[in-house]
Design goal:
Chain lengths: 341, 341
């Protein structure tokens, strides 16, 4: 066994060999930080019992650049991203896995920092990272670190959320201000300085979802508006359900700084990524109680009813603008913000 | 919707945007090939029922270079890799997920070919790829394609395989010839031409494991000797269980071509990766029946008893050589074969 120099050392190709050096990295960096009985058992897989119910599985690759940003880093983002994909099915997340692709030369201090951040995010959410894998690629064949997380969870009896169940007349809600994550990242990349006032909304939403399921038995579907932002998310839901959507710009929660940064950057908050918000579709009659419950939860304080589902064979998403006009909110066409998550 | 030019097109940054172009890639390439009800539902996660039993989860990143090789490609390898990690716990694999990290400029024809290969491998194994994710990184920030697969399976009642249960006196078996995958890849990279006679052993082993569990109720543990080869695998098991191991070189199944290629390349088949073989530890009295059952299965025809577990506080793996000497089989120290899986 060689002692890793976590302060000044770097990832080397031998750390991906599967041999002694791989073990050193595992034993001296990953295991002490992620510490849990499954991982400590040192098998190539984890075995566990799940509570009764239907099982949910999700996976998400993370290639965000830069790796560290106000409000989070690729480590916490990779945990929240998969937790939220599970939560959007109404699931209680139970266990996570993580696959790392490291670039030769990546500082071990940075790896340590972001694995510590993953560990903290996983601990807060109550979902241990029970199995994982590490690969190393040559310098110039990767970009620091990519992390793919997967997760399994369990859906409570009777819960059948899906994106294809929106019906005309349903209400559309968002859980809080939109665009924060995307705008923070872009401002940081362009060194615009807005990021001193705004930060990523990266957070796990499963506890908010739990509360929502209690008050809205008819809840149709949930989705987190990540890449492509709220606009893309609504278009996906409209297409899946074969409906249209009508939203009201005046009801959209957008932070003033985000609005200002968007104007400066030529962005639209509707298309800017979120990493800790959700869109909910529910029967109109359940919307007031759902809204109230969301606002009573720390992750939903700025929740709003933003519109309703319409009958539309073209599955258009339309928005009544602040000035009273109608605007079609199309799919994101280009690539507004590459590598945002 | 734009029609993808799968023959001549390339991966572009917008395919990772989450917007219209991402949908096009999903609808025109991934969905038709991987076709199954979960994926076709277009949610960000999959919901399913699992048969009763303890649940197993595994994950494996794949960065193999080159992407296509005799006997497989990164697509089939990514399916077999995770299936085998599940099978080594004695599990029946049930569902898979796949996360793709694509490099800008990667030919869509190659992507199509390797996703088709994944689909075929998944179909053969009876384990659909039910959820997934695609990210795109700039040219020069990746290397064609990396694939991280995860899987869940279920362990039959009473089965408690683990790498920490080897006991002095136990028999050590391998399911077939060793070193094929690693040597094939290295020969290909160095353009040595051996790869016309040998090929990767990449294959799913869960059906072989099923047969083994039937005949060896006392089976202690299984592990697939991938990166770092048989030598590393035995060292891991010895360390986990706090035992030593004694193997016999004359019993090791090694193909003649692999032996010749190893001599030429200065490699040791003991340290060369396998992607379709397993090591089994079982009580000595169950070994003959286990060996017979393995040899009766297409994936275990060349199985052999290669040695036994010893009492050794230093957890050494030792080998009696062909010439009768004793050699310590240490952990892989350097990086014999980078990016082998």
């Amino acid at each position: 066994m060689a002692t890793l120099d976590i302060k000044k050392g770097r990832v080397e190709m031998i750390h991906g060999s599967g041999g002694r050096a791989s073990q050193d990295l595992l034993e001296q960096l990953f295991l002490p930080l992620l510490d849990n009985p499954w991982l400590n058992q040192r098998n190539d897989q984890a075995v566990f019992d799940l509570p009764p119910g239907r099982v949910v599985m999700a996976t998400d690759g993370h290639v965000v650049s830069p790796l560290f940003f106000p409000g989070g880093d690729i480590g916490s983002l990779a945990v929240h991203g998969t937790l939220n994909d599970l939560a959007m099915a109404g699931a209680r997340p139970c266990y996570l896995s993580a696959g790392f692709i490291l670039e030769e030369g990546f500082p071990l201090a940075d790896l340590h920092r972001l694995v510590a951040s993953m560990a903290e995010a996983a601990r807060k959410a109550g979902t241990p990272i029970v199995t994982g894998d590490t690969k190393v690629v040559e310098k110039g064949k990767g970009d620091g670190v990519f992390i793919t997380t997967s997760g399994v969870g369990v859906v409570p009896e009777g819960c059948r959320l899906s994106g294809d169940q929106a019906r005309p007349g349903d209400a559309i809600l968002v859980s809080g201000s939109i665009g924060d994550h995307g705008v923070t990242l872009l401002s940081l990349r362009e060194s615009l300085g807005f990021e001193t006032e705004i930060c990523s909304d990266s957070q796990a939403l499963h506890r908010l979802v739990e509360v929502m399921l209690e008050v809205s038995p008819g809840l149709r579907g949930l989705r987190d508006p990540t890449r492509g932002g709220l606009a893309t998310c609504l278009n996906e839901l409209a297409q899946q359900s074969g409906v249209g959507m009508q939203i009201d710009e005046r009801q959209l929660p957008v932070r003033e700084t985000v609005r200002a940064a968007c104007e400066f950057l030529g962005l639209d908050p509707l298309y800017s990524a979120n990493e800790g918000k959700l869109v909910a579709i529910c029967p109109a009659k359940e919307a007031p109680a759902l809204l109230q419950a969301m606002r009573g939860h720390p992750q939903g304080e700025e929740a709003a009813i933003i519109g309703q589902v319409t009958r539309d064979p073209q599955n258009l998403v339309q928005m009544q603008t602040r000035l009273g006009g109608q605007r079609i909110i199309d799919w994101l066409q280009g690539d507004q913000l590459p590598r945002i998550c």
